[in-house]
């Protein structure tokens, strides 16, 4: 008696199922690994990006603070130079003929002022090294009013009435 063929399962009939299962498992392993590596890469990128941005912020903040300190030191030095020049006995005479040579020497010595170094008389007329006596009246300017009240002043940049360029006034 021979048994029918279907009574004994052949290895051929299960081979494609086993091969399909192995292929599916392999695909799942490769896909899962790829997914995990992708997720890990994304979070690693975010961590490095945030650390880099924080470092850049700190460096920018440090540079701004250093720049601000340099500007503060520069302003303090120019202000003290201006006060020293203003307190010279010859400056108090308000006689431009006497003051001009002294201011020229100070301009040469310090080399920190534009040739706009000058005085404003009590009527607001401006005298400077660049033009001597000018037809410019500065009596409406804040630095003139504060100077007439005896206050030292450093203004935010304004446009010069002498040459139209931005200047910082020390009075």
Explain the layout of strands and helices.
Elements: H1 11-86, H2 89-93, H3 96-110, E1 118-120, E2 125-128, E3 132-137, H4 142-148, E4 158-159, E5 166-167
Antiparallel strand pairs: 1-2, 2-3, 4-5
* Extended strand count: 5
In quaternary terms, these chains amount to single chain
The strand line-up of the biggest sheet is: 1-2-3
Rg on CA atoms, Å: 41 Å
The low-pLDDT segments are none
* Shape summary: rod-shaped
- How many separate helices? 4
Mean pLDDT: 85
Give the class from helix and strand content and strand pairing. mainly alpha
Order of helices and strands: HHHEEEHEE
**Helix content range:** 55-70%
Distance between the termini: 126 Å
Largest sheet: 3 strands, antiparallel
- Roughly what fraction of the amino acids lie in strands? 5-15%
Concise overview:
The protein is mainly α and 171 residues long. It has helices spanning 11-86, 89-93, 96-110, 142-148; strands at residues 118-120, 125-128, 132-137, 158-159, 166-167.
Q: How does this model look, in words?
A:
With 171 residues, this protein is mainly alpha-helical. The protein is built from 4 helices and 5 strands, in the order H-H-H-E-E-E-H-E-E. It has helices spanning 11-86, 89-93, 96-110, 142-148, and strands at residues 118-120, 125-128, 132-137, 158-159, 166-167. A 3-stranded antiparallel sheet has the order 1-2-3, with helices on one face. Strands 4-5 form a two-stranded antiparallel sheet. It is rod-shaped and about 110 Å long.
